[in-house]
Amino acid sequence: MLWGTLLLLAMATALAGPADPKDYEVKAAFLYNFTKFVEWPPHTFKNQEEPVVVGVLGAPQCATALEQLVKDRKVNGRAIVVRRIDTAEDAKSAQLLFVGSSEEEHFARLLPSLAGAPVLTVGESQAFKELGGAINFVVDDSKVRFEINALAAERVGVKISAQLLKLARPPPSRGS
Amino acid sequence: MRAVRRGAAHTLGLAAVAAVLGTAPRAGHAQTSPASSNLADMSMEELMNVRVERVFGAAKLDQKVTQAPASVSVVTAAEIRKFGYRTLADILRSLRGIYISYDSVYSYFGSRGFLRPGDYNSRVLLLVDGHRLNDDLFGQAMLGTEEVVDVDLIERVELIRGPGSSIYGNNAFLGVINVVTRSPAAVQGLEVSGEGGSLGSRKGRLTYGESTSGGLSVLLSGSLSDTDGYRRLYYPEFDTPQTNNGVADHSDSDHSQSLFGLIKYGAVSLEAGDDLRGKQIPVGMYGTVFDHPHTQNWDSHSFADLKYSLDMAATQLRARLYFDRYSFYTNYPFDVAPPGQSAPPVVIHDSDYSEGVGAQLELTRTVFDLHTLLVGTEVHDAPHLYQSEYGGTPWVYEFRDDQAVRWIGVYTQDQLSLRKDLLLNAGLRYDHYDNFGAAVSPRVALIYNPTTDSALKLLYGQAYQTPNAFQLYFAVAGLNANPGLKPETIRTYELDYEKYLPGNTRFSVSAYHYRISKLIEEVETPPGSGITDYENIGTVSSNGLEMELEYKPDNGVLARASYALQQARDETGQGLNNSPRHLVKSNLLVPLHTAGLYAGLEAQYTSSMLTLQRRISPGFLLLNATLSSSEIVRNLDLAASVYNLFNRYYTYPGAPGVPEDLLAQDGRTARLKLTYRF
Predict the structure, then answer these.
(1) Which member of A6, A102, A175 has the closest CB to residue B677?
(2) A127 part of contact set with chain B, CB < 8 Å
(3) In the CATH scheme, what is the code of domain B7-677?
């Protein structure tokens, strides 16, 4: 049994093809896309020139991938700026906040100061979901999916377009 | 008459196995592949079809495992379900370097080549959500059907190998088992579960969990379980006409019931549990009448734990108030008829209980982004350590005593980033017991990342285990108390290396050296008197090597194999009994791509062990298989398991006080389990 398992592992490693993109790279691409399908309440931006700020809490690799990705790209005519978040002030300045998977406790501490601010929160863990995050990434069968908690988004005045809602994964059957 | 007591005389020889520390690579610098700009051009639908490679060190759990100053193994609820684990003992048996012995009453934890059956199982600390389950009287970790919390309530089990007293204090000798229970949000509804299997085993459970948007969450669960056991068990040591030719009839039944509840509101939570377990004892121990259906042990626990946690800017505060009650009751019929005559057996009872309350305060603070400092204190008062033994007609007390103990512990740990690739973790705990004084437990770990996907750890730690109330205070004819007993100590040195290979594969190897001193053993005092007591006289020294390979892509496949080589010797240089030289484990989980079916296969090889009488208990290979599905019927979980698939006959060395030097273990058994969610 032991030898069979080791042989299987060796074969799997040998047969592995060219490297697939990392999950944080695909998540960065999704974050960029989310900004296209979301409407923030009026007066969120002072003027047409103000950029969309995507805050990243933790997840340094995702932040770097996102920075590369949004260079020279615009969404609805606005530039996109990536900001690595540490304090509550930083978090409030973002329109979209991505919470890395080891940062749930930090996020929990920031939540009270985010109350009422129109920040779309995106995460990648069960703990983040339980904290009331709006969009949660889940990797299923090696593919990145996301679940949407529309109520959470509504609560902060952010509207998620029907196109995005359609692509979201329905809540999983309990116990999986 | 020899004292009737729980736990047998100690076996000679101890094995200590150092745990291997696992390490995880730190998240390295991001590497944007040429594909990332292509990703930006893809539509959402296209993005959803891109296959990704899993990155280790990113998940909180992986990071917890890799940055911990210890080797940590984690088993999740999904694995518990898919491998058909029935108890904590089953879960632990699958882990690298761990072996669990069973004496037809309790399951005993063996790690790093060290296991002493019948010895209270107090050298491993068992926690449920941070609450110590080792009782105040005997310090036992309950791992089999005697466990306090139902295995279906487990979200995950973490085994933190090695000395853990620098944070946890007493009993964290060979390791710490932390059971994390499922959150009410994870249950969210009503769950009904039923099981049926071989040996007349059946179990029913009802669990309700709810998490409201207002911040209140509740979980309530109750379960009832019964096994008839083997209707006929044969013991060659009793093969005489007077003792039913060695056959114990209908003497192996097991009954357990448990309740568990959790209420959480904001930062406050209250958790409580209660369990009762009764087991018939077929082995004819301590001179009890063989094949008597009334030879039984009953164990009962109750606990409550009130927690408060506060998260501020760079500080976290945890405060706890807790209560525990443990009671133990036995029914042992003894044959006192003079030879040649017959007389009804005299029934002797042990009735013991302990009660304890405690409070704990813990503060964690990040200072200058360099240090993560943890400071804590715990006070504990056990006003009752009550032991009694009585029986006969008329009733007479052979022993009756009530003691108390109070202890206080202060501990601290600092995790310091010396360099970007070098982490130092140092901890110290000082405990003071009002009966035997102080225990000091230091621990130091150096974690180095030579590359972003590999880590090297160097560890030194000390832990202790206190003598229990029986060893300290119990006295009957032939056995003296020894209130002057001191705690046992263990010192470990470990070196670990872990590397992440491409293709979602993790490899780890570790080497360790242990030394246990002041080991408590039963000795004749003075020699030749025929009277014994417990003394701190044993020493064990042990060396070992462990390795593990795990392949876990995101498609549901899991393939894991581990090997442990260990050698433990006592003070005379003799190899310990109950210590297998080799342990090989392997787990394979394969999704079958229809109806969410999973096949879970386990193979475990334990090499031969020496028994108390220095005979050989042969090595054995066991295979377990489980077929499970969550999708055949919506909201229904089905699992069919077969344990010891090839019906291998195997034995474990017996404990002192038990006539059997080799104890036969279970043959092939099967189980069918259904869980339905409303």
Answers:
(1) A175
(2) yes
(3) 2.40.170.20
Residue of A1, A65, A167 lying closest to B32 (CB–CB): A65
Of A13, A33, A61, the CB nearest to B505: A13
Asked if B497 and B444 count as a contact pair (C-beta separation under 8 A), the reply is no
Give the lowest-confidence range in A44-53, B350-359, B582-591: A44-53
DSSP B479: B
What would the two tokens of residue B310 be? 């506060």
Cβ pair A8:B312 closer than 8 A? no
- Residues 596-655 in B contacting A (C-alpha not used; CB under 8 Å): 601, 603, 605, 623, 630-631, 634-635, 637
User: pLDDT at residue B84 above 50?
Assistant: yes
Assigned CATH for A18-167: 3.40.50.2300
Domain ranges of chain B: 7-677
Higher pLDDT, B345 or A56: A56
Write the CB contacts of B52 (distance below 8 Å, at least 6 apart in sequence).
A20, A21, A22, A23, A25, A26, A139, A142, A143, A144, B554
Q: What are phi and psi of A38, to 5 degrees?
A: -125, 145
- pLDDT beyond 90 at B110: yes
Give residue-wise pLDDT tens across range B624-673: 999 999 877 888 999 999 999 999 999 999 888 788 889 999 999 999 99
Residue B79 backbone dihedrals phi, psi, to 5 degrees: -70, -40
Q: How far apart are CA B475 and CA B478, in angstroms?
A: 8
Q: Is A115 on the interface with B (CB under 8 A)?
A: no
pLDDT at A166: 86
State chain B's mean pLDDT as an integer: 87
Tell me the two tokens of residue B480: 């003296």
Provide the CB-side half-sphere exposure for B148 (13 A, CA): 28
Grade residue B266 by pLDDT with cuts at 50, 70 and 90: confident
**Which residues of A are less than 8 Å from B53 in CB distance?**
19-23, 142
Query: What value does the mean pLDDT take over residues B143-168?
Result: 93
How far is Cα B9 from Cα B12, in angstroms, rounded to an integer? 9
Residue B27: what pLDDT? 30
Q: What share of chain A is helix, strand, coil (3-state, %, to 5)?
A: 40, 25, 35
Closest CA to B103 of B156, B148, B44, B146: B146
Q: In angstroms, rounded to a whole number, what is the distance separating the alpha carbons of residues B442 and B488?
A: 15
Predicted local confidence at residue A19, as pLDDT: 58
**Which residues of chain A make contact with B637, given a CB cutoff of 8 A?**
175
- Cβ distance B48 to A21 less than 8 Å, yes or no, reads no
Of A8, A102, A139, the CB nearest to B559: A8
Phi, psi angle pair for B276, to nearest 5°: -140, 135
Query: A175 and B630 in contact by Cβ < 8 A?
Result: yes
Rounded CA-CA distance B677/B85 in Å is 20
A residues 46..65 contacting B (CB < 8 A): 59-65
Of B315 and B221, the one with more pLDDT: B221
Question: What residue in A sits closest to B630 (Cα-Cα)?
Answer: A176
**Interchain proximity B27–A2, CB inside 8 Å:** no
Domain spans in chain A, listed from the N-terminal domain onward: 18-167
User: Tokens standing for B46?
Assistant: 């296209």
Contact residues, chain B, for A167 at CB < 8 Å: 44-45, 48
Q: Which two tokens stand for residue B7?
A: 């736990």
Neighbours of B134 (CB within 10 A): 25
Residues 373 through 432 of chain B touching chain A, CB cutoff 8 Å: none
pLDDT above 70: percentage of residues in chain B: 92
CA distance B3 to B477: 7
Whether residue B277 contacts residue A75, with contact meaning beta carbons closer than 8 Å, is answered with no
Q: What are phi and psi of A24, to 5 degrees?
A: -70, -25
Q: What is the pLDDT of residues B567-597, one digit of tens each?
A: 999 989 899 999 999 999 999 999 887 767 9
